[in-house]
Design a protein that fits this description.
mainly alpha, three-stranded antiparallel β-sheet, 3 strands
Length: 172
């Protein structure tokens, strides 16, 4: 009697989707779970940004700037983009009156990006709505499972060198 070949629908999270490789271990399931979670988060951020007439990256920029003004080089590092792409992003958000460029005190050549009052309001609304929607995703979990989730995410983020501001981890 030969073993039946599993279909994609029958595949468990730790089974390779084509069925040929058999069980590939928990790493495959973990990767799929992270990919699924990433997609869910990206969809949520995009939906909230769209409601506020922002692109997801504009919302992220405003969120990052709520902590403090940032220099262009630092923003380029945080967003992992080149100077031209960052300049275009800043130009578009500045045109909408959400940020402004200002000179860095003590360094005549350096420019920093600062939220305007409208930008701060937009950033806080974006942050509030994203936070609310993402927190709602965790409601089915018990309080202990929610705490375990936060601890796991913090451990993963720090080991990868990332902070909660979507940039390089300052504490690592």
């Amino acid at each position: 009697m030969s073993a039946e070949r599993p279909t994609t629908a029958d595949a468990s999270p730790s089974t390779h989707p084509d069925g040929d490789a058999g069980t590939v271990g928990p790493a495959f399931g973990d990767a799929m779970a992270l990919i699924q979670l990433s997609g869910l988060i990206q969809e949520t951020v995009a939906r909230v940004a769209g409601r506020q007439r922002l692109t997801p990256v504009q919302g992220r920029l405003l969120w990052v700037l709520t902590e403090q003004p940032r220099g262009m080089a630092e923003l380029a590092r945080i967003f992992a983009v080149g100077k031209a792409n960052l300049t275009g992003l800043i130009d578009r958000v500045e045109h909408r009156g959400l940020v402004e460029r200002s000179l860095v005190p003590g360094d005549r050549r350096a420019v920093q990006v600062v939220l305007t009052d409208d930008g701060r309001r937009a950033a806080l609304a974006f942050h509030r709505d994203v936070t609310s929607e993402l927190a709602g995703l965790l409601e089915p979990l018990t309080p202990k499972a929610q705490d375990d989730f936060r601890q796991a995410v913090t451990t993963i983020s720090h080991s990868a060198g990332h902070s909660t501001a979507w940039g390089p981890c300052q504490a690592c």
